[in-house]
Structures are given as structure tokens and as C-alpha cells.
Write a structure and sequence with these properties.
Two copies of one chain form a homodimer.
Chain A (H helix, E strand, L loop, with lengths): L18 H23 L2 H8 L3 H8 L2 H21 L5 H14 L1 H12 L9 H20 L9 H17 L1 H8 L6 H14 L18
The first copy, chain A, binds a DNA duplex (30 and 30 nucleotides) through helix 3.
DNA sequence: CCATTAAGTAACCATCAAGTTACTTGGAAT
DNA sequence: ATTCCAAGTAACTTGATGGTTACTTAATGG
């Protein structure tokens, strides 16, 4: 059977071309879909519908579903690197800061979580730049220890892991958090309360001799 | 076309019946498959193959994929409740204990993670018994605070959330942990080191006036 | 010892979803 | 002006996958 010629636009609409916008729409729709459903759960058709583009374009720009996923992750990582650098060394500020950031960007936490669950035979996406980022973070901690703002009795690696744990966990496990706190993670009251807890709890990271003031308004 | 009669066992093997064992095999295979691939990623055929049973039996015993998933979670939760109760009140012991437990039972952490990512319009699986468990845990913390083993300056809820964060995070995000620690989470050396870190760090949860000895062999 | 039922089997099917085919067309470069 | 390619479209293919049909047979209670 011969392939039948079809008009590209059966309705009279003009097909304005805009490769940049199309790419952007796909990436943005893909971020939402992947964050919501993960790689296996995400539907290419759903991404296309969400982006209001033809599915074929997705393959045109990104090759296949997996490459699209990697690109989404890569972009999000790049986006986060900026805020990663601008960060006070004082844990009483940085812990609440990181916690609030996780609250604001649930998609990010979810993406990392999906990545964690991906059967990890494959290598880390964007590994080099992330390794570099981690190295810089460790360097800052070492610096803060030397300045006496962070307890020197602990290894920087463990301190960093503990800080990440405390600030990301609630968003990563909303059901457990709700079980414990009695409120949904999305509740602003919970977020404020827990940020305040972290500010006080940050004393644990400070040298015993140099514990800062625990009241609300220091400086 | 008439349906053709087929022998149930074309090879001469005897079909020994064992409903209990069959159910058990399905649940065990499903636990592995769901922990590894999540609900969307899990394949019913893979579960059947793993369990070495006919796929039809899975539907016979559990109705459908989702009911099977819920049953797997329910059983794992029940299994964990036992170890949840047997736990010292001293954070210098309980933090490393919980951390090691997470390391040992990666499937559990992964299941919770998959559950967290499930689009949460549905209600919590086995909510009542889990709520009760959380309430008991909070009660123990309040008790320990009264006895002076835990800092009274923090709300029990926040303390519990912080403890869970510190002990579960590394297994939940192995890729981030590896990025920070330079070693895979599965590395026994890392696990020992971090357990030791948590033992020392537990001082953060103890009252300022009642900090325990930080050396390795107390008592 | 026989009827009934629960446990078991293999083949089948409908649907869904990733990826392709086979085209058309806007617009930049020659 | 005309060619050419990237951008765009709709229909199609193919394989996987959750679930079903249509049976057989071991075991158990009357």
C-alpha cells in the first residue's frame, strides 16, 4: 500500500517555526513529567502533549527518552550549581537555607531520588562537574573548621553528609515526615518550625568552645 | 475456533501443590522486584519467573499488581515493627544502630523511597499501624528527655525526624553519598566509619550538662 | 469413592507506549 | 528565484506487558 500524502497542517493554522522555544518546551515538560513519574513511569506522549509539540520533535532534538532524561538532569544540576556556591559558612544559617531550598524545589529532590533508585549499573550523570562541586563544598568546610566556625573534631566528609541528610530528608520522604510531624511537608508552618529547629540544632556542628548565640536575632 | 484442550503438565513432572509456599515465593520475588524497579518498573512476568510459578497464580492470590505491591509493603512494615521497639534510648547507641539497620536492609529503604515518589493522591499504606508506631517512638523520646538522656530544649517530633534523616539518608541516596564520601555505601569501611561518626555526633542530641563520654569504650 | 473446589498450566489478547516512516513546508543561503 | 535543509506533522509499526480464557488435576470432606 502506498503512503498517502497528507498536508502538514490540515487545519489552516500557520506553522511558525521556533526551534529554541520547542526545545525549551520539551525540556520543561520533561522535567515535570520525569519528576512526577520517574524514568520508567514517564510517558513520552505525555511529555509531548504537555509541551504542545509533536512527539517526533522530541526524537528529533534528543534522540530518545533516556537522552532526554539525562539532559533534563544535566540542566537541573547546572541550575543548582549557582545557589550551591552562594552559601554562608555558618551552619546556623546554611542548614535552614538548604532546607528551605529543598522545600522550594521539590522537583530537584525527586529527580535525585529517581536517580538514586535507577539500577546503578550505569555511571553517574554529569559526574565530573558534580564531583568538582562536592570537592569545593568539602574545601569550604575545611576552611570553616580552620576558622573555628565548624567543629574540627569531625571529618569534613561526614559533616557534609550529615548536613545534606538533615536538610533533604523531609522533602525526600514526605510520607514519613508527615507521619512524624503530623503535618504535610508542604505546610509553611512545618517548614518554618523545622528551619528554626535546624538553626538551633546547628550548634551541634560548631566547636564546643565557640558556640554561637542561640536566640533569634544575633549580630 | 474451539479452545484446544492442553495437558496441565506436558512433561511428566508431578504437580505438587503447596499454596503456602507458592504465596510465599510470590511475595518474596515481588519484594525483590519492586525494591529494585519500583511499581511502574516492576514486571509481573519477572516476578513470576523469579518465583518460579505460573503468572496466573499471582492473580489468583493477589488480584492484581497493585494489591500485590500493597501486600509486600504491608508485610515489610510488619517485619520492621519488631526491631523498631527494641532500641536503646541513648542516641549514641541508637543512631549507629538505626544506620546499620538501614545498611543491612537496603530493600526497605528503597521501598519507602518508591512509596514516597508514588504520586500521593492515594492514602498511606497501612497508615494506622504506622501512626501508632510513630506515636510510640515519640513517647520514648519524651521519656528519655524526662530522664535527662535527650536534650529537652527540642521538640520530640523534630528530634525524631532529625534522627531518621541522619540514619536513612546515606542508603536512600547512594549516589550522593558516594560523591561526598568517595566510597560506595556498600563499603563496610564507610559503614563502620559513619556509624562511629554518628556515635560521636549523638552528643548533639544529649543535654548540654549530661554529655556522655566520647571515647570508644565507655561503661 | 465420588463430587466439589482450590491450585495449577499454557496459550491468548487488548492495550499501551517507544520509536519510525513518510511525508510537507518555512526560511536562510546561494 | 530557486534550492536545500532543518523544523514540523500524522499515521503507522513493533514489541512489551498486564491481565484473561479455557482448560486440567490434586486433594479434601461427605
Amino acid at each position: 500500500m502506498e503512503y498517502m500524502a497528507r498536508p502538514a497542517k490540515p487545519n489552516g493554522a500557520v506553522a511558525e517555526r521556533n526551534p529554541k522555544r520547542t526545545r525549551e518546551r520539551i525540556l520543561s515538560a520533561a522535567l515535570q513529567e520525569f519528576a512526577a513519574n520517574g524514568f520508567a513511569g514517564a510517558r513520552v506522549d505525555a511529555i509531548a502533549r504537555r509541551a504542545a509539540i509533536n512527539k517526533r520533535m522530541l526524537y528529533h532534538y534528543f534522540g530518545d527518552k533516556e537522552h532526554l532524561f539525562r539532559e533534563v538532569l544535566r540542566r537541573k544540576i547546572a541550575e543548582r550549581q549557582a545557589s550551591a556556591e552562594s552559601l554562608s559558612g555558618d551552619p546556623a544559617e546554611s542548614l535552614p537555607f538548604w532546607f528551605k531550598l529543598s522545600c522550594k524545589d521539590a522537583d530537584w529532590v525527586r529527580l535525585l531520588e529517581w536517580e538514586a533508585l535507577q539500577e546503578a549499573d550505569n555511571q553517574l550523570i554529569d559526574g565530573n562537574s558534580r564531583r568538582a562541586l562536592a570537592t569545593r563544598a568539602l574545601g569550604r568546610i575545611r576552611q570553616q573548621q580552620a576558622l573555628g566556625y565548624l567543629a574540627g573534631e569531625f571529618e569534613p566528609r561526614h559533616l557534609l553528609l550529615a548536613m545534606r541528610s538533615l536538610t533533604m530528608f523531609p522533602m525526600a520522604f514526605p510520607q514519613l515526615t508527615r507521619l512524624i510531624m503530623g503535618r504535610p511537608v508542604s505546610d509553611p508552618h512545618f517548614q518554618k518550625q523545622h528551619a528554626e529547629f535546624l538553626r538551633k540544632f546547628a550548634a551541634a556542628f560548631q566547636p564546643a568552645g565557640n558556640r554561637r548565640n542561640k536566640t533569634n536575632f544575633e549580630n
